[in-house]
């Protein structure tokens, strides 16, 4: 998936532009510089061509202020990750030396740059925008991110500038891609080396050794797989200057390309909030998930240790009750061989297709066992169900009041599908539509 970075000096309207492209108010917007200090990112799907959009803190090339230096480093990281850059300047303030410094740096990146002159709310700003041609762009996009003025032309140019996707599921239906995801220093690279039996990746006890996603093709039981190692995902506030260049975007892009996600946990540290966040990313993207508890050899054990740890994991990952749990040691190789067995089983479920007749039998029995609730004085009715896709298994249920289906009843139907057909290790997507087709 392509990445688009929004960069520019503080207070030129980058976050407002981010929100305008996203279509919702997600980035904090205030009328003073420095509000956005870290990279903010979102997956954009509303234009037909999905891409990841990064909002960054203001870029002040010459400032020695520590906070501004951190913000500058965040912008540099975003530029490194980006396929296309939106360089935002302020029509009201006019061209500044800092704008020229940023433009020079972007030219050195040799990446496509769209020059966006923001805060053009009328003819006077439009006339003054021409001075920004001095930055070297052959086209300027005069916009008002706050009011939406000029956005259609900018979006059209942005979509044209996006590179063709390098990966396509349709081109590799016979291979299964595994993304190895987790916090820094949980042993992801060591685990991959142990799984494929070679020192393919640099493994180092220093957190953050891996900075890019690395693909490793291999075969298992005469089937093709690709292991994707990723940089550790760490809270954005922990990413500091040149010391820690962990790329959240690279990990999210790895999930986009993956079919199965191995979420690696540290047995010594237990489950952390960041582990839950990482797993949540995988669930949001509809990926099959396996929870891999690494460094199990370092835990003091008795007869009930694994059972107790499993209960704690299940309680913490209550949104992933279907995910298998594997306890391993990448260092010693203990139980690592069990991972691929789980991957094979989960892959079968991820691609499972169920006949419509069998689905509707389960739907009928589910409704008889637990009738849908009343909505606006009328009983919800479901007429039939059909499967619309795999990876993940996706279903549409047709009824008389799609908007009235409560999430608890949706969860009930999903559980009934699991009881009947399995789908272990992967999410189920249910969509409800009125019989006329409206969701």
Automatic annotation (TrEMBL):
It comes from the Bacteria. GO terms for biological process: ribosome biogenesis. HAMAP family: GTPase_Der. The keyword GTP-binding applies. GTP 2 binds at residues 182-189, 229-233, 294-297. GTPase that plays an essential role in the late steps of ribosome biogenesis. Residues 2-166, 176-351 form the EngA-type G domain. It comes from Syntrophotalea acetylenica. Belongs to the TRAFAC class TrmE-Era-EngA-EngB-Septin-like GTPase superfamily. EngA (Der) GTPase family. GTP 1 binds at residues 8-15, 55-59, 118-121. Keywords: GTP-binding, Nucleotide-binding, Repeat, Ribosome biogenesis. This is GTPase Der. GO terms for molecular function: GTP binding; ribosome binding. Associates with the 50S ribosomal subunit.
